[in-house]
Amino acid sequence: MAVEFRMPHDVVYYEADVTGKLSLPMIYNLAILSSTQQAIDLEIGPEYTHAKGLGWIVLQQLVTINRRPKDGETITLTTKAKQFNPFFAKREYRLIDSDGNDLVIMNGLFSMIDMNKRKLARIPKDMAEAYQPEHVRKIPRDPEVTPFDETRDTDYVQEYEVRYLDIDSNHHVNNSKYAEWMSDVLPVEFLTSHEPTAMNIKYEHEVLPGNKIKSEVQLVDNVTKHRIWFGDVLSAEATIEWTAANN
């Protein structure tokens, strides 16, 4: 049975957005914080991984948001590595309130990358075994992201330059930055009057230091479709579902 890791966390003001609730990018950061801390506790953390010339990359994440925790709220972060095969791994994350209710549930598909060649690499057996996951021959595919409607224009578009602080220790843009680019392009009026309830994000190609990217979105009712481009290369795409905010 997979080893579950748990850690308490107090939501602080700089993790919240203007609504006083945990921001969408910080949901991703806290999830990765929990799995990184689990790896450190198992003595297979970033220092161990990077010494092998390897780094974890995320390929896709599916998120269900029942409620975003508020600034000052104490929550519990949990994670476990559910399934492994030689090249891919599935991991589950949960953000839980003080009453034991699931606030956020995230499932992520990961792989390893050779830090020098920037190509997929085999997951070392000792690292896989440490998590005690289910070993499978093939990991089930997640639902595809809803594609853009190519018969209509984008509703909003914004360009961003990749900054030094956008890059993580795997030498590419941290995955939370994609959520930042995808939400930041939307109007403030929409963001303050709507709550995200689900997100399906798929990462296609790395974004590296010095790159300039374009974030574009189509808004259809309470669903936004997102694409991140580096030149003519699709770097990431996502679908976010929203509901009217009850502030």
From TrEMBL:
Chain ranges of the Acyl-ACP thioesterase-like C-terminal domain: 153-243
Pfam family, one: Acyl-ACP_TE
Residue span(s) of domain Acyl-ACP thioesterase N-terminal hotdog: 4-131
Coiled coil, from the record: none
Origin: domain of life: Bacteria
InterPro entries according to UniProt: Acyl-ACP_TE_C, Acyl-ACP_thioesterase_NHD, FATA/B, HotDog_dom_sf
Gene3D superfamilies: Hotdog Thioesterase
Record's keyword terms, sorted: Fatty acid biosynthesis, Fatty acid metabolism, Hydrolase, Lipid biosynthesis, Lipid metabolism, Transit peptide
Family: Belongs to the acyl-ACP thioesterase family.
Designated name of the protein: Acyl-ACP thioesterase
Record organism: Weissella thailandensis
